[in-house]
Design a protein that fits this description.
By secondary structure, this protein is of the alpha/beta class. It has helices at residues 10-17, 34-41, 55-64, 81-87, 104-108, 133-139, 142-153, 158-169, 177-187, 190-193, 201-212, 214-228, 242-256, 288-293; strands at 24-27, 47-52, 71-75, 93-99, 229-239, 276-278, 301-307. It has a seven-stranded mixed beta sheet with strand order 3-2-1-4-5-7-6, with helices on both faces.
Length: 315
């Protein structure tokens, strides 16, 4: 199956990046190469480093941009961006893009084990390396599982779901997506089962985040991306759920904070200046037309900022 991912908020993202023909850019989540292609289309003498942890994505993008001297493709998690960029001879960038979360290809390829719509091995590894979701549900205590469901899925029924999983695995290991989905469905109240949407949605989201260490990687990736930006460079981040969006919002707000003197001080004595400015105060959500064309975009939000200086004390 071809690695296909429909970029959300595409035009808004490209506008936020404001690609310069001679600039240096990093796409930290290359996927099928949609955003990377759009950046390359705007470059003349510039360079683009496309990064992805999924070997299927790296293979697709490598083939797609083969022979283009402006393009570099590397397999890594975007949390490793600074080291990867240094190895590629890139010390500073004019723009960085992060499109966080699971891709359409990963969701629509049953054997990757991300979806509860098809029966497949319970995998969920974006990098295709390390412990799988099946490893977690078959080894962790119910308390640990409940913590994952509550923290990463904001699941109201985390405890009964976790206890249902532990009880079921005493009879046989939980190996497939449909096994888990049916267990979750059986563990929640009947009223929840009658609500729109699958009752396993939050559980699957939480497991995926835990398997891939997504929030820790996002925190590291945001700092790496901002450190690489030149003054005047821009960072654009697309998120798909509230935990990611909250982290991006708070991190960008911290970069945009300036003077911390008490409000009753007549003049600033701390000397702190904002390191960045927000391009969109509240972030951008998809419009009605995009939602109609791509329902999966409904939870997406774009936040972007422009770097002003490298330090709060720079002149």
């Amino acid at each position: 199956m071809e690695f296909k991912h429909i970029p959300v908020l595409f035009h808004e993202t490209m506008e936020a990046l404001a690609v310069r023909p001679d600039g240096v850019y990093i796409d930290g989540t290359a996927g099928g190469g949609g955003h990377s292609q759009a950046i390359l289309d705007r470059l003349t003498t510039g360079r683009l480093l496309s990064i992805d942890q999924d070997p299927d994505a790296v293979r697709t993008v490598t083939e797609r941009f083969a022979g283009d001297p402006r393009s570099l493709v590397r397999r890594a998690n975007f949390a490793q961006m600074a080291a990867v960029a240094a190895e590629a001879g890139i010390s500073r960038a004019d723009g960085v893009l992060l499109d966080i979360g699971v891709s359409s290809y990963q969701l629509d390829t049953p054997e990757r084990g991300f979806s509860y719509h098809s029966d497949a091995p319970l995998d969920m590894r974006m990098s295709q390396e390390g412990p799988t979701a099946a490893d977690l549900v078959n080894r962790l205590s119910w308390q640990e599982l409940a913590g994952i469901f509550r923290k990463y899925g904001e699941e109201k029924y985390a405890r009964p779901i976790a206890q249902g999983i532990v009880k079921a695995r005493e009879a046989e290991p939980i190996r497939t997506t449909l096994q888990l989905a049916e267990l979750v469905k059986a563990s929640v109240p009947a009223a929840v089962r009658r609500e729109p949407g699958h009752p396993a949605r939050k559980t699957f989201q939480a497991l995926r985040i835990a398997v891939n260490g997504e929030l820790d990687k996002l925190s590291e990736g945001l700092d790496a991306a901002f450190s690489l930006l030149k003054p005047g460079g821009r960072l654009a981040v697309i998120t798909f759920h509230s935990l990611e969006d909250r982290m991006v919002k708070q991190r960008m707000a911290s970069w945009c904070e300036g003077c911390t003197c008490p409000p009753d001080f007549p003049v600033c004595v701390c000397g702190k200046k904002p390191m960045a400015r927000l391009l969109y105060k509240r972030g951008l959500a998809p419009g009605a037309e995009e939602l109609q064309q791509n329902p999966r975009s409904r939870s997406a939000r774009l936040r972007a900022c422009e770097k002003l200086r490298d330090s709060v004390f720079d002149e």
